[in-house]
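Holo prediction. Input below; ligand is adenosine-5'-diphosphate.
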Amino acid sequence: MPASPPLLARDVHKRYGATRALDGLDLEVSPGTVHALLGPNGAGKSTAVNVFTTLTRPDSGEVRVAGHDLRRSPRKVRAAIGLVGQTSALDEVLHGRENLVMFGRLHDLSKPTARARAGDLLDAYGLADAADRKVSTYSGGMRRRLDIAAALMTRPHLLFLDEPTTGLDPRGRNEVWKAIRRVVGEGTTVLLTTQYLDEADQLADRITVLGAGRVIAEGTSAELKDALGGDRVIVTARTPDELARAAEVLGGTPDPETLQVAVEAGPSGGAAAMVAAIRALDAASVDVGGAVLRRPTLDEVFLHLTAESDEPQTRGAAR
Ligand SMILES: Nc1ncnc2c1ncn2[C@@H]1O[C@H](COP(=O)(O)OP(=O)(O)O)[C@@H](O)[C@H]1O
Ligand SMILES: [Mg+2]
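Structure of the complex:
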């Protein structure tokens, strides 16, 4: 069987009236990875997930899921995927186990198969103790994990998770992250949407940044950070006076609030920039509190990229 990527999307468009929810989306997800679709509210993440899971028809574009053409073989696509939507699909009055068994039965598993699979998943996702309690008694993190377990009942090749941790407290988020790591550890490819940079950074092998329905950047988190710029030397002064003198010597812009001055490392790299900064300060007899080498955070990358995509949309213009 020729290796086809779990998901391949080319130039996908979807409009709602005047809104271009998807405006030429390209995406390729590699097998056995967690791929994050990262973007602010309204970027088109859920629309993309709904298109890929056959819930929404695209206006144009090519999509192949698990090797099947979305238009020609929607049933085969549905058989190959699992979906955890932005809102939970669980039945509150049923027990956790009952939810899983019901979900399995709806997807044509025999009763014994559904029961066995449900038992395995409840164990694997830390829900065995709560299995015979009503979902209405579950915490947010437990519900999300049960949602994930339900989507895994059919052993999908590709699992879609649409903002799986939005609204969870830090503990719930951690539980869900652990669950997602387990899913991919067992060989299921995951496409995850998120508004959270740290989530993409923590979980994703590859990140596609979405803005206004199209890709504004893509890569590993390290590559995205590189795209913004390299390392920076951050020098911290102890007094405003010291800060002014350090800024003068280093040629950077001082930040009076943090008493810091940042210097971009040039092409020779962060270590060389650090040595040069220390030497320059020493030669000018400027004492400082400290100096560190820092890469831009993913937050900085994201802010930078989304600010760019907020500029008037001149498609096809240079940049
Ligand atoms: N069913 C719909 N009808 C009209 N507009 C929609 C519909 N679904 C989404 N949109 C619009 O499409 C854009 C993308 O929405 P969505 O895909 O939900 O973004 P995200 O999931 O990234 O927050 C938004 O401007 C949203 O208002
Ligand atoms: Mg959404």
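The mean pLDDT is 91. That is the main takeaway for now.
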